[in-house]
Amino acid sequence: MLLQCPKLLFELSKIHQTLPRTKKLHALIIRNHLSDDPFYATRILRFYAINSDLCSARNLFDETSHRSVYLWNSVIRAYAGEHQFYDALSLFAKMLRTEIRPDSFTFACVVRACAENYDPDRLRVVHGGVVVSGLGFDLVCSSALVTAYSKLSMADEASRVFYGVEEPDLVLWNAMASGYGNCGFWDKGLRLFSAMRSMGEQPDSYTMVGLISGLADPGLLGIGKGVHCFCLKSSFDCHSHVGSALVSMYSRCHCLSSAYGVFSSLSQPDCVMWSALITGLSKSGEYEKALLFFRKMNMEGNKVDPILIACVLAASSQSAILGPGNEIHGYVLRRGLESEVMISSALIDMYSKCGFVNLGVMVFESMRNRSIVSYNSMILGLGIHGLASQAFKMFEEALKKGYRPDESTFSALLCTCCHAGLVKDGQEIFRRMIEEFHIQARTEHYVHMVKLLGMAGELQKAYDLILSLQQPADSGIWGALLSCCDFHGNSELAEIVAQQLFENKPEKGAYKVMLSNIYAGDERWDDVKKLRDNVQEAGIKKMPGLSWIGVGRN
């Protein structure tokens, strides 16, 4: 039969087929009585998955009685690719109850699904399954596990997997280098790079991207330039993904001239490079330049992806000017991109932060497909406008529809409580986050809790909460308490808090100005003069506040 259908085999060997073409091929297979053959079923199922037609893919899978491991892998990957993780994991559990044993690619797909779903507990269980199946040292599984643990900021677990493999290949080396970079351990990444070279393993362009991704602090600019030099010597700079990583690195280090230098060194920068520059400008606070380069990129006919549009919308929301955001919304509608969840969520966020939460609600209600990200945007938008009860209802709606809340969900809820002064509600939400949903509190959660307690006058409770932290408190958490001390005029506690901040962030003048204002409220003029003289002698400057009024189109 294979020899009788050479044209069919040629069509099935292609990487992509349109949905109408896939359905014609499916009909041809049924007509030739090949639909029960797992080879043909697997190829057609993959085409359905590429076209996001999960319904047809699942029907084909259910109708195929002889299922190979490749067919199982394809259907699990199809659901995971569409972020329907519950269905993907359910299929994996169903597979385990059959005589078909999962292979390394099955486990790799499920491991990625656990990471994408931010489910560390399930990831550990699947990792146990990998070991029990005798694939604990398999390079495909190990690379997937290192990447997954790194994505969940579990660098120690990732390194244990890596160092458990006697002879890692280049893919595994790169996964660990990227893992250290994503987790912020640039020093470990550099040591890994040195060890890699000493063992005779030659780095490639993806190794360099992993190293560069860990350089996120202006103090690491010198190291970043050193890595850039290595890229130039090894001719890695001609790769667009290396160039975009360098642009992003220089942007993070507030060296925009070097970022633009890397960008302009390429005669024809691709979409990735444009995105890196625009994103870098946006994150560095150069919102007008980010919008300008977005327009220039669009005028030159470059294809814009949803991630870049979301970034530009974030820049528009930070500038608090509605005009550019409206302009981008029009572009989205003209290009038929409004169904993209990432873009719609960014539109909700932009309208809310520009003061038009009603327009954000309209975008949310028009969405055919939603995710926890879109609910997070809506909860935060309602919360910052003081609509706490509506924000809470939105959270309950998300839970009823089966969406799993993440760190950003609870950050939005706690922010809502801060704006409305709902101390008890905030404490209950914080408790549920840890005990019910098993989400570890991060810096932003503690900032909200400290601010919530502090602004309600519970300064001692806020201070005790900071002291109870296992890790040293971030300056953002101490800064939140200092602002509360300023609001209530508590100079005694303010001095203790300020001392912590001066040790952590001696270069930041805003904290010293805040403390001097507290002294002035107590009429401690000598202390005010001493502190302000200290600021002037150190050459520290407080960023001045700016405000503007938009007139017409300007």
Description:
The chain is mostly helical and 554 residues long. It contains 32 helices and no strands. Helix 3 (38-50) packs antiparallel against helix 4. The protein has helices at residues 6-12, 19-31, 38-50, 54-63, 69-81, 85-96, 104-116, 120-132, 139-151, 155-163, 170-182, 186-198, 205-213, 221-233, 240-252, 256-264, 271-283, 287-299, 306-319, 322-334, 341-353, 357-366, 372-384, 388-400, 407-420, 423-436, 443-455, 459-467, 475-488, 491-504, 509-521, 525-537. It starts with 5 loop residues before the first helix and ends in a 17-residue tail after the last helix.
The average pLDDT is 87
The CA-CA distance between the termini, in Å, is 70 Å
Give the percentage of residues in beta strands: under 5%
Form type? globular
Point out poorly predicted stretches: none
The DSSP helix count reads 32
What Rg do the Cα atoms give?
27 Å
Helix content: over 70%
Major sheet size, sense and barrel closure? none
Instruction: Let me know the number of strands.
Output: 0
Structural class: mainly alpha
Structure summarized in a few sentences:
The protein is an all-alpha fold. Helix content is 71%, strand content 0%.
Which short descriptors sum up this protein?
554 residues
Draw up the topology in text.
Elements: H1 6-12, H2 19-31, H3 38-50, H4 54-63, H5 69-81, H6 85-96, H7 104-116, H8 120-132, H9 139-151, H10 155-163, H11 170-182, H12 186-198, H13 205-213, H14 221-233, H15 240-252, H16 256-264, H17 271-283, H18 287-299, H19 306-319, H20 322-334, H21 341-353, H22 357-366, H23 372-384, H24 388-400, H25 407-420, H26 423-436, H27 443-455, H28 459-467, H29 475-488, H30 491-504, H31 509-521, H32 525-537
Helix pairs in contact: 2-3, 3-4, 3-5, 4-5, 5-6, 5-7, 6-7, 7-8, 7-9, 8-9, 9-10, 9-11, 10-11, 11-12, 11-13, 12-13, 13-15, 14-15, 15-16, 15-17, 16-17, 17-18, 17-19, 18-19, 19-20, 19-21, 20-21, 21-22, 21-23, 22-23, 23-24, 23-25, 24-25, 25-26, 25-27, 26-27, 27-28, 27-29, 28-29, 29-30, ...
